[in-house]
């Protein structure tokens, strides 16, 4: 009995609860058969059984026409010494079975959700010990089913929260898209570059120690917000077709701090932060920092730059180089790779550059797949003037 209770308490779905009863309950009560019945609106579904002969597994009966239904409707245990002498028993349903006596216990007396039946091939009253044990099994099943319902509810809530998060990403990224139509699928491409680079980094020291599957997923989900701060840049600068003047470039550089501030505002509104928002804020603020300390907005150097910012730096620059802009033609993939390689230790983390050069063909494929002239257009036109 204790083993059965433990198995049901650890069950994570109905199948596991039913299986635990099927494997153990019959032996515990000394019966010739056991059934697990689930209430399905106005019918009783005989979900599973363990018996010396066939019973009703997989069948449904009207709740008003079977003993399990009576037990569920009344919330009471039914004990029948001789099925042929009890008017509640639908004899036709039992005529081809071995059953002569039975006990049917509702699963949860208050608003029962099912029932567990024990059956004997001899017409006699089951022992009080057998009845009490079956009631205990049913009570444990009721608790286990409640636990499963809570687990499913929490999983559904978590999934809903994830969908809301993803919708927020798209909504915020779309704000940047509406400002600058130069770069097409830049957001989509950089998101995939980031994931490809992060997954490859997991296989190489020292990055494998700091990159978990969860962090890789967060990097992928957070990447679209890296340029959200550009919503605060005036059109005269953001959409300028030619080279920016020094003072204009200073304004453009402010998009990193503006992005951080926008996400920080979202955190204050929530009253707390999340790993996703924290990482998105970090990437927005640091993806223009440079390994040698000459980047902006903080002039961070080396490993002072968070890993997310270092990854996005390569993804962002690569896409700017190989994509056509109103102020420049697209650069061949090989030339872009060569530029990033030459900037190793200056603009980019040298270790990340090694990983990048190893998987550079994946970057070329991503750019081809999400090209501005076709491919997956799920993000529409997005903002990504290199600054």
Describe what you observe in this structure.
By secondary structure, the protein is an alpha+beta fold. Helix 1 (2-9) runs antiparallel to helix 2 (14-29), helix 6 crosses helix 14 and helix 12 (307-322) crosses helix 14. The longest helix is centred in the middle third of the chain and has 50 residues, at 128-177. It has helices at residues 2-9, 14-29, 67-74, 91-94, 128-177, 186-201, 213-222, 235-238, 246-253, 255-270, 275-286, 307-322, 333-342, 350-369; strands at 33-40, 43-51, 60-62, 78-80, 101-107, 114-120. Strands 3-2-1-6-5-4 form a six-stranded antiparallel sheet, with helices on both faces. 51% of the residues lie in helices and 10% in strands. It has 14 helices and six strands.
In a few lines, what is going on in this structure?
By secondary structure, this protein is of the alpha+beta class. The protein has 14 helices and 6 strands. It has helices spanning 2-9, 14-29, 67-74, 91-94, 128-177, 186-201, 213-222, 235-238, 246-253, 255-270, 275-286, 307-322, 333-342, 350-369, and strands at 33-40, 43-51, 60-62, 78-80, 101-107, 114-120.
Strand order of the largest sheet: 3-2-1-6-5-4
Count, helices: 14
Question: What share of the residues lie within helices?
Answer: 40-55%
Q: How big is the Rg?
A: 33 Å
Q: How far apart are the termini?
A: 69 Å
Average pLDDT, all residues: 86
Elements, N to C (H/E): HHEEEHEHEEHHHHHHHHHH
The description of the largest β-sheet is:
6 strands, antiparallel
Please tally the β strands and state the result: 6
Roughly what fraction of the amino acids lie in strands?
5-15%
Structural class: alpha+beta
Described by the principal axes of the CA atoms, the overall outline is elongated
- Give the low-confidence spans: 374-387
């Amino acid at each position: 009995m204790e083993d059965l209770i433990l198995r049901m308490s650890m069950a994570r779905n109905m199948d596991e609860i039913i299986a635990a009863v099927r494997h153990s309950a019959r032996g515990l009560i000394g019966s010739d058969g056991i059934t697990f019945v689930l209430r399905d609106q106005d019918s009783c579904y005989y979900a599973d059984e363990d018996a010396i002969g066939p019973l009703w597994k997989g069948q449904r009966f009207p709740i008003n026409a079977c003993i399990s239904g009576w037990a569920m409707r009344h919330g009471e245990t039914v004990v029948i010494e001789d099925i042929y002498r009890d008017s509640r028993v639908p004899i036709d349903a039992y005529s081809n079975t071995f059953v002569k006596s039975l006990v049917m216990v509702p699963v949860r007396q208050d608003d029962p959700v099912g029932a567990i039946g024990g059956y004997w091939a001899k017409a006699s009253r089951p022992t009080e010990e057998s009845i009490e044990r079956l009631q205990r099994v049913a009570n444990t099943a009721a608790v286990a089913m409640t636990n499963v319902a809570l687990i499913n509810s929490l999983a559904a809530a978590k999934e809903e929260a994830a969908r809301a998060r993803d919708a927020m990403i798209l909504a915020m990224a779309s704000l940047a898209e509406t400002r600058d139509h130069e770069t097409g699928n830049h957001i989509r491409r950089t998101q995939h570059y980031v994931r490809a680079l992060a997954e490859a980094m997991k296989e190489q020291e020292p990055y494998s120690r700091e990159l978990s599957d969860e962090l890789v997923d967060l990097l992928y989900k957070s990447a679209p917000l890296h340029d959200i701060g550009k919503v605060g840049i005036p059109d005269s600068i953001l959409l300028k077709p030619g080279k920016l003047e020094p003072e204009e470039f200073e304004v453009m550089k402010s998009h990193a701090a503006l992005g951080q501030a926008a996400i920080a505002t979202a955190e204050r509104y929530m009253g707390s932060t999340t790993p996703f928002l924290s990482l998105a804020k970090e990437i927005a603020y640091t993806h223009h920092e440079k390994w040698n300390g000459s980047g902006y907005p903080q002039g961070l150097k080396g490993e002072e730059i968070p890993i997310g910012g270092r990854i996005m730096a390569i993804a962002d620059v690569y896409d700017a180089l190989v994509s056509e802009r109103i102020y420049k033609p697209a650069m061949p993939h090989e030339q872009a790779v060569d530029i990033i390689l030459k900037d190793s230790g200056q603009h980019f983390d040298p270790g990340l550059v090694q990983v990048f050069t190893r998987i550079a063909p994946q970057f070329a494929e991503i750019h081809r797949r999400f090209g501005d002239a076709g491919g997956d257009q799920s993000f529409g036109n997005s903002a990504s003037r290199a600054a």
